[in-house]
Amino acid sequence: MDLDFDVIELPEPNHPTSGETAPTFERPLVNDEYWEDTKLAALTEDGPVVLVFHPMDGAFPATYIWNELRDREFDAYDATVVGLSISTPYEHKSFIEDRNLAETGFQFFSDPPNEVANQYGIENDLGGMAGIEEPRPAVFVIDGDRTVQYAWAAREHPEFPDYDELQENVERLTEDE
Amino acid sequence: MTEPPITVYRLQACPFCERAIRKLEEYDIEYTSRFVEPLHSKRNVVKRESGVRTVPVIVDENTSVTMAESANIVDYLEKTYGKETETDAVTAEHPITEES
Predict the structure, then answer these.
(1) CB A26: neighbour CB atoms within 10 A?
(2) I need a surface site. Which of A45, B6, B29, B81 has the fewest CB within 10 A?
(3) pTM listed for this prediction
(4) Do B37 and A28 touch (CB under 8 A)?
């Protein structure tokens, strides 16, 4: 998008990069029917994971990102695709329904205190919403050993993942295994 | 990481569910909690598992038992996992007419 004014730049992220271990965490993981406390490490035991941090479920970037991943059929890969935002499990359930994601099997971690984004060094202190911070958009492609194979985090507010690049990395990883 | 063999479908703030959970905690039994929504119409998973839409529902892979109704669940847990205890003080309880 070309705008004739400056967009907001975010502070340098400090996230794990390719080759480093993705920190594990445990949070309620929401699917279209229920939620259950789940560890990232339990998901990677089953194979590659695409971990997508996104703004609150009601914000437009959340809609853009998940519509795109749905339309690009990320559910077809041999990988577990999970989102994470500060939205509650109830909001995640509505989001899955509203965005027609039930069929995809995409699941969503709920982290209202935003601790996981801080653990990953990608927090975004929202202006004009007192007391609320959330993850900036960020994507981690993580292999079955919990090693990061691809990492991207937004530097501007808003900024979206390079979906082609993401897709190439997911393909490379899932074809290897 | 292996999942505990017992899964409980439950609803936040549901006293019937807490009653079943309390019994599991009392016996120090590991279990997985799966939270569902308040609307019965959004509980297809519970219906598939148990045939009903009320919670709690317990799924026990140790015994292949799936059961609804908190009173029945408590009974079941006592008989299956309880030490030989004296009969519980059921007199103090209201008859259960409806689960959440």
Answers:
(1) 13
(2) A45
(3) 0.90
(4) no
Q: A144 touching B, CB under 8 A?
A: no
Q: Report the 10 Å Cβ neighbour count for A67.
A: 13
Residue B89 confidence (pLDDT) above 50 = no
Tell me, what's the pLDDT at A18? Answer: 97
- Give the one of A28, A33, A41 whose C-beta lies nearest to B44's C-beta: A33
CB contact under 8 A, A33 and B35: no
Give the Cα separation of B90 and A105 in Å (integer): 44
Could B35 and A45 be called an inter-chain contact, meaning their C-beta atoms sit closer than 8 Å?
no
From A46, which residue of chain B is nearest by alpha-carbon distance?
A: B1
Q: Does A126 reach chain B within 8 Å, measured CB to CB?
A: no
pLDDT band at A149 (very low <50, low <70, confident <90, very high): very high
Over the stretch B10-20, which tens digit does the pLDDT of each residue have?
999 999 999 99
Whole-number Å distance between alpha carbons of B82 and B18: 18
Phi, psi of A45, deg, nearest 5: -60, -25
Matching residue, tokens 């991943």: A69
CB < 8 Å to B31, chain A:
none
The whole-number pLDDT of residue B83 equals 76
